[in-house]
Specification:
alpha+beta; Aminopeptidase; 5 helices; eight-stranded mixed beta sheet
């Protein structure tokens, strides 16, 4: 039994399902909503890369370093994005939530808030993680703002951390939530999902 096993996580707005090759077409359609692959600070596969990217991610799952999910809207039944447990360090009970993106039509809705609540609850309350990381491009202001709204703390910036699709160097902002902070973060997420509070 590995540290992170495939599991379906279901809330009131979304369901997170372990990625399969059969999801490739649905992910391609979701990414087309907003042509997300054109966002230079994001890492969304181009349409012609969708299936190969799925196969690559499933390979990392077999190695135990990643657990990728598709995000399905319970309102429409459609796949509206993707998210991942990655950089899994079983010996340290740590992991990162990353490679997250959503169709433009569901951005700034309850989708991301509830997906993060589901992932963090499973990480801290089932997997007993001591910390969960979230990373993003330093220039991705919307992503940084969303991570900070969760209650994650900025650990630092990895300068010239990696090369982008066009060869540009990326500075990566590293955030984390630790186990002692989880109760407060969870209360904030639950509050934001209440009707009328805005997710």
């Amino acid at each position: 039994m590995t540290f992170v096993e495939p599991v379906v996580l279901t809330g009131n707005h979304v369901s997170l399902e372990p990625l399969t090759v059969e999801h490739s077409a649905a992910l391609k359609a979701a990414a087309a909503d907003g042509e997300l692959w054109n966002l230079w600070f994001a890492s969304v596969p181009r349409p012609e890369e969708a299936e190969a990217n799925t196969v690559y991610r499933l390979g990392l799952r077999e190695q135990g370093s990643m657990m990728p999910f598709v995000v399905r809207s319970l309102k429409t039944g459609a796949v509206v994005g993707a998210t991942t447990y990655m950089n899994i360090a079983a010996e340290h009970r740590r992991l990162e939530i990353g490679s997250t993106w959503y169709a433009q039509s569901v951005q700034r809705t309850a989708v991301n808030t509830e997906a993060k609540l589901l992932l963090l609850t499973h990480a801290f309350e089932t997997l007993n993680c001591i910390a969960v990381e979230l990373r993003t491009h330093s220039m991705n202001r919307p992503s940084r703002a969303a991570i900070e709204r969760l209650g994650a703390k900025l650990d630092g910036v990895l300068r010239a951390h990696m090369s982008g699709r066009n060869g540009e160097l990326r500075d990566t902002c590293v955030y984390s939530i630790t186990a002692p902070e989880w109760a407060t973060v969870k209360a904030g997420l639950v509050h934001r999902l209440q009707p009328g509070t805005g997710a």
